[in-house]
């Protein structure tokens, strides 16, 4: 946390001095890579260190002026992170397909995926998502799509790194990759129709605007009445 705060203050100092490079998104990625290297050098948890640095890196910019284009630096970093996330997701989907060729799914792995993706994960989300926080339709959508991501690949890699090998490792990889492939297929096919139906339902609800808000035109000042 102290490292993230220090790096953030240093970068803000460079921004205030008019350094254009200090606004570049890749510079902040480099700051995270610095944290990664320090964590490796000190034999500490890279996940915890990079999370703490990322959480504190932009705190000095919370009250900072907009960084151009009508966006603050934090907003620009968020948009940059979303673009990188999409690229990584596309690359991960490609790698999962290639890995399935080397580790073909077994009947047990397919059965595990069919239980996990359409049943266990939605029921888990429904169990922890309280009533009243979101609407009923939103709760159903969240339960179906679940917590999307590639975290299971990290957990699988951690298990393999800790010594899981042989037939157990093959079975583990087959189960994980099959579950990810089923999630990509089921959620990819259902995302567009479900979200389209949800947007149509929102527009049909009373009290919600059907279009973008309009800005009222300023009224022209009235001329004063002529003197009596």
Please give a structural write-up.
With 228 residues, the protein is an all-alpha fold. It has two domains: 1-63, no CATH class; 87-204, no CATH class. It is built from eight helices and no strands. It has helices spanning 2-16, 25-41, 46-57, 73-102, 107-128, 136-145, 151-161, 166-204. Helix 5 runs antiparallel to helix 6 (136-145). The longest helix is centred in the C-terminal third of the chain and has 39 residues, at 166-204. It is globular, with a radius of gyration of 25 Å.
User: What number of domains?
Assistant: 2
The overall pLDDT average reads 81
> Secondary-structure element order, as H and E?
HHHHHHHH
What are the segments in which pLDDT stays under 50 over at least 5 consecutive residues? 208-222
Structural class: mainly alpha
End-to-end span in angstroms? Answer: 73 Å
- Binned strand content: under 5%
| Rg calculated over all Cα atoms | 25 Å
Concise account of the structure shown:
Helices cover 68% and strands 0% of the residues. The protein is mainly α and 228 residues long.
Ordered list of secondary-structure elements with their pairings:
Blueprint: H1 2-16, H2 25-41, H3 46-57, H4 73-102, H5 107-128, H6 136-145, H7 151-161, H8 166-204
Helix pairs in contact: 1-3, 2-3, 4-8, 5-6, 5-8, 6-8, 7-8
Describe this protein with a few key phrases:
single chain; 228 residues; mainly alpha; 2 domains; 8 helices; 0% strand; globular
